[in-house]
Amino acid sequence: MHTAKISGAGHYVPERIVTNDYLATIMDTNDEWIKERTGISERRWVENGDGNTAATMGTKAAKKAIAQSGLETSDIGHIVFATISPDYYFPGCGVQVQESLDMGTIGATDIRNACSGFIYAMSIADAFVKSGTYQHVLVVASELQSPFLDKTTRGRNVSVIFGDGAGAVIVSKANKGEKGIMSCHTHAQGKHKEELTMKGFGTQHWIGELLENGIDPDIHYPQMNGNFVFKNAVVRFEQVIGEALKKNDMTSDQIDCLIPHQANLRIAQFIQKRMGLRDDQVFNNIQKYGNTTGASIAIAFSEAIETGVVKRGDIICMAAFGAGFTWGSVLMEY
């Protein structure tokens, strides 16, 4: 068995900044109401016609990650792409990145694990490298959500939360003596699948039905039982972080940086308090990007490196919880 590590990271977010004050002009809300419930001040949304899609944003993030790793695109053996907002119903975005970066005929795997998508993608890449199947795997997580939000007062509980963006990392074979990725943990609980969902565009809803009845907001906009999701999230976050620490015989005080999925600042703060972590042990950027679903941890990790918050040799814990329900964690030495 080999050891895997992250050799490079990068992210991309659209230029358009959407503030809480702007949202107050299109729905019944205000800056204080949004901040109190989510901690979000602004988010990035694509501009109609700016060329941004899940695949193109993912490609931009991937280019940065490859450059930071010091590798060439020809060194990449496989692509794992996580998104719930693909350009096409099929094929997946992975092949689009492959084409855009002229990466030959390497394999591309697409996954749909919503908020925990990056964690699941990391677990797949880690397994590929540890088994010796590939030496370098490109992991991309990208979400284009703003066009599919109900931007009226009816949908404000959901629409004020989400943003667009992409992050990417290169998972590579570690050198001798490097700890790299110590363990990955993933879980699911399908009985809660409808507590956080968007039912539209699935095969339960035939095209004839859609044409006849038009757009039904109940199935074509994201639906979330916010309180139920929050109550489950805080429990599962703590459990799966604890699972990673126990697996590696470590304690929370040994974590240099916890990077949680940027779902809601209140969740992150609750977990921080429960685990007794200092402010400098937790990295949050939801305040300016909102919840970018599967891309959030990848964006946060890249930004933490870019700003010097995360440095080589630091012990990093990533954890996510989201639709499915699915959740997971990754513990590593960067």
Low confidence ranges: none
What characteristic shape results from the CA principal axes?
globular
Radius of gyration: 19 Å
Largest sheet: 5 strands, mixed
Q: What this model shows, in words?
A:
By secondary structure, the chain is α/β, with parallel strands linked by helices. It is built from 12 helices and 13 strands. It has helices spanning 20-23, 31-38, 54-69, 94-100, 117-130, 156-159, 207-213, 217-220, 226-247, 265-275, 286-289, 296-306, and strands at 4-12, 17-19, 42-44, 78-82, 107-111, 136-143, 165-173, 181-188, 196-197, 223-224, 257-260, 315-322, 326-333. A 5-stranded mixed β-sheet has the order 1-7-6-4-5, sandwiched between helices. Strand 4 (78-82), helix 4 (94-100) and strand 5 (107-111) form a beta-alpha-beta unit. The model has no long low-confidence stretch (mean pLDDT 94).
